[in-house]
Each structure stands twice: as C-alpha cells, then as structure tokens.
Amino acid sequence: SESTTAPEIAEYLQRLESERLQASEGKVLIVDDDEDLLEHYRLTLSHTGIQVRTLSTPEEIFSVLSEFQPDILLLDVNMGDYHGPTLARLIRFQPEWLSLPIIYLSAEQDRTEQRKALAIGADEFLTKPISDIELRETVRIRCFRARQLSQLLARDSLTGLLKHSLIKQEVGNEHARCQRLSVPAVVVMLDLDHFKKVNDSYGHGTGDIVIKALANLLKQRLRKTDKIGRYGGEEFAVVMPECQLTQGEQILEEIRVHFSGLHFKAGSEEFNVTLSAGIALLNDYPSAEAALEAADQALYQRKQLGRNGISL
Ligand code: GH3
Ligand code: MG
Ligand code: MG
Ligand code: MG
C-alpha cells in the first residue's frame, strides 16, 4: 500500500493535537519552592483548559487539596525545610488521597534515587529541566486518566448508575444549589416490588436482568441533568434539578407504567415486575439527608398502601 506522505502526517498530528487541546480538562496542583518556576509552569499550562493552582510552600497543602480537589499533584522533591517524598507519604496516608496521582519534579538524575522516591508513594518522575511539551503532555494525559478512573469508580458495575455514596453527594450538591438559587428540585426513592419473589421464582441472574432493565429505562426517560444512583440492591435514588413536584411525579408515573408493562422471560415463563416510589421536594427540607429520608418515608407508605404507585 501507498505510504503516507510527511505533510499528511504533520497535518494529522496537528489535528490530533488541536482536538486534544480542546478536549483536555482537569485540575492540577503544583507545589514547588521556586516561585519563578511555578510561574513558568502556570504559563506553560495556560490555554490547555486545565486549571492550575500553585503553592510555593507545602504548609497549606492539605487544605488546598480538600478545597481544590485536583486530579493530579505535581510535587517538588527538594523544598528547603520540606522533603517531597516525605510529604507524598503523608498524603498517601489519607484515605481520601490514596489514589491521587503524584508526580515528582526534581533535578535528580540518578535512577536508583528516583526509584526510592517513587517507592514511597508517587507515580512518576519528571526530571528538571522539564520541557514545556513534556509538562503539557504529562499533565494532560495524567488528568485525563485520573478523570476516567474516578468516573469508572463512581459507577455501579451492574447498572452503570452512580454508587450509593456518589448519588448522596449529588443530592447534597443539588440541595446546596437549590437553596442558593431558590429553584425547585425533586428527590426520588424507588424500590422494586416483591423482588425477593422474582429471585426465588426465576433465579438471581434473571433478577439482575430486571434491575438492569429498570436502570436503562431510568437513563432513557430522565433528563441528562438528572442524577440516578443505585442506592441499594434493588433500590434507586434520583435527583431532578429544576423540577417541580408535580412534574417529577408525572415523569415517574410514566416510568412506573412503562416498567410494569415490560415482559420478562425466564425459560418458558413470562412475568412482569412493578415498582413503588416516594418523592419529595428537596427545597422543603433543611438537609439532603432529611429530603432523602422523607422520600424513603413516602416510599414506605406506598408499600403499605399497596405497591405499584408513587407517593408524596
Ligand atoms: P418489597 O415490595 O416490600 O420491596 O418486597 P421485596 O421482596 O422487594 O423486599 P426487599 O426489599 O426486602 O427485598 C429485596 C430483595 O432484592 C432481596 C435481595 O435478595 C434482592 N436483591 C438485592 N440486590 C440484588 C441484586 O443485585 N440482584 C438480585 N438479583 N437481587 C438482589
Ligand atoms: Mg525545589
Ligand atoms: Mg423491594
Ligand atoms: Mg428494597
């Protein structure tokens, strides 16, 4: 076959570069005691779309980590009174920062010394002087990977929905937002009816298919801005921003009806499953927890009154 000519390659690389430039996002915290160097790093990373925060001394590193929530940390090895690897170890001791990628910045050329520093708990070593392209590429790729992994970790593997802690976090974020902007938001708790019977009659694998079907229906029917979580085994939580109670109730009612009409198959048998839901206006409660609790109470009432319905 014909070989690709050099101008084509150059053009291709250029396009790839500009696409990646547009696509890059993320947050990097850089800690280095050399202020001029920090400014240079900041300039090098400007226009990449990546947010940069710099610290010339690590005294406030923990509060900045918590507040800024970077995707990656670039850490100088030699900072006068502070030793980068010692700091890296302290950071790694915090469960919250166990998976934070840490990249050392140092003039250390000796591979054995580099490996020792890495063994303490960092991921990569950039040897000073660091070229602009190397800095940009490393930060971009590491940020991208870190985001990819954290998105993967946030998702429940069976359904692809947000895990329990993440959906709670989303409800919390939305509670803060709807209080600040006084826009309505709705929170929902959903539970499959008599699901034990489904498992007992048709097996756990079939039960899993039912759970996935509901997850897919929720993804299809709810808005892109709605957040859906698998709260427990066959229990789901949803938060719907910019949504009134009646609106939320209507959408849920449509979902309930649609779901109850689905035919599931197990061998030669066909069956249907229903769901119950409780719904609450997030704005009516002093906290996200209280609103979730109210939705859960409404769900419980629905189960008492007769399943296959929505309660306020
Ligand atoms: P109710 O209408 O009152 O909710 O009745 P129920 O039978 O659904 O009651 P309950 O919530 O107590 O039972 C939930 C069942 O869901 C029990 C559990 O074995 C099953 N379950 C939980 N997680 C999974 C899962 O991932 N896959 C399958 N197949 N079943 C699950
Ligand atoms: Mg230094
Ligand atoms: Mg149930
Ligand atoms: Mg349940």
Automatic annotation (TrEMBL):
Keyword Phosphoprotein part of the UniProt annotation: yes
Domain GGDEF, first and last residues per copy: 183-312
4-aspartylphosphate PTM sites in chain numbering: D76
Location of the Response regulatory domain: 27-143
Domain of life of the organism encoding this protein: Bacteria
Presence of keyword Cytoplasm: no
UniProt entry keywords in alphabetical sequence: Phosphoprotein, Two-component regulatory system
Enzyme Commission number, as recorded: 2.7.7.65
Catalysed reaction equations from the record: 2 GTP = 3',3'-c-di-GMP + 2 diphosphate
Name of this chain's protein: diguanylate cyclase
The species this protein was found in: Lacimicrobium alkaliphilum
Lineage of the species this protein comes from: Bacteria, Pseudomonadati, Pseudomonadota, Gammaproteobacteria, Alteromonadales
